[in-house]
Amino acid sequence: MTYKPLALITGGSRGIGHCLVLSFLTDTDVLNVSRTPAQETGGSARCEPHELHNLSVDLADVALIEPCLRTWFDAHPDHRVTTLIHNAAVSPLGWLHELSPDEVDQAFRVNVYAPLSITASLVRAARFATDGARVVYVTSSLARPVPELSFACLGLYSMTKAALSRMALVQSREFALTAPHLTVARAHPGIVDTELQRDLRRHPRMDPAFAVKTAGLPPFQAGEWHDRSPKDHMRTISAEFSAEFIEWVARTPDATSEEYDFYHAEEFHAARRDVRHR
Ligand SMILES: NC(=O)c1ccc[n+]([C@@H]2O[C@H](COP(=O)([O-])OP(=O)(O)OC[C@H]3O[C@@H](n4cnc5c(N)ncnc54)[C@H](OP(=O)(O)O)[C@@H]3O)[C@@H](O)[C@H]2O)c1
């Protein structure tokens, strides 16, 4: 290999993204993109000799993304992206008839236009590893076009995640036609105990049906899924557990563009059980 492999992760300053940063640092250099820098502390992982780089960008400033990435890669000409994880997102809350045009614009900028711009910039600048790279879009079950996952107050968030998910599918097809060394995967990370989830649960105008759904999801306890399937016993999981799943999606050799759902990924949970029993 003549290049330095790089994992580019957005939203690594906290939550699931921070756990992803720490985990990837154990075997590759990482470039985090968020407004606040990611710290190397907070995990048990020893990171040397891999380097953590931070690019402080407000992803709402979509026009700045391509020039910022170009400047960073010009200064790091040996790096090639082997994994790109689009994890950063905002969770704009409010009923649809109350949202201002600016709120709608801001949400689509961060959750949809920015991921599109980052992937496109790397393609245009030929910064993906040519012997294989994976792009993972972190989606949400709230993107699915089904009535039971359509909650008042979560409309704009759901709309942006639906657009992201659809974009990922079309991009997967485009890569299959023109750049088969690039593969796209979509991952629903589970219901995760992070700031984003806490904001949703404490919002005063949240759909009561969402409160009922989340009240039925107590925190996961180790061992609970030893002989019960996660899909029938859903739980709120930690950011570490969720990141472990997303990393599994990123590293699964023959991943397809079908959405990987934390609670339905039998292979992931079985592989974890096998490691524990070894
Ligand atoms: N938590 C859940 O239950 C859940 C469920 C389904 C899907 N998800 C998805 O999982 C992903 C991670 O969620 P999380 O719960 O870990 O979220 P989180 O704790 O709120 O973290 C969000 C991350 O996104 C970054 N970000 C937000 N706005 C940004 C901006 N304008 N520019 C640059 N970076 C920005 C933040 O960094 P800065 O503030 O430093 O910029 C932060 O690092 C998201 O895509 C979310 O939609 C989460």
TrEMBL record:
One matching Pfam family is adh_short
Please list the coiled coil stretches. none
What is the designated name of this protein?
A: Uncharacterized protein
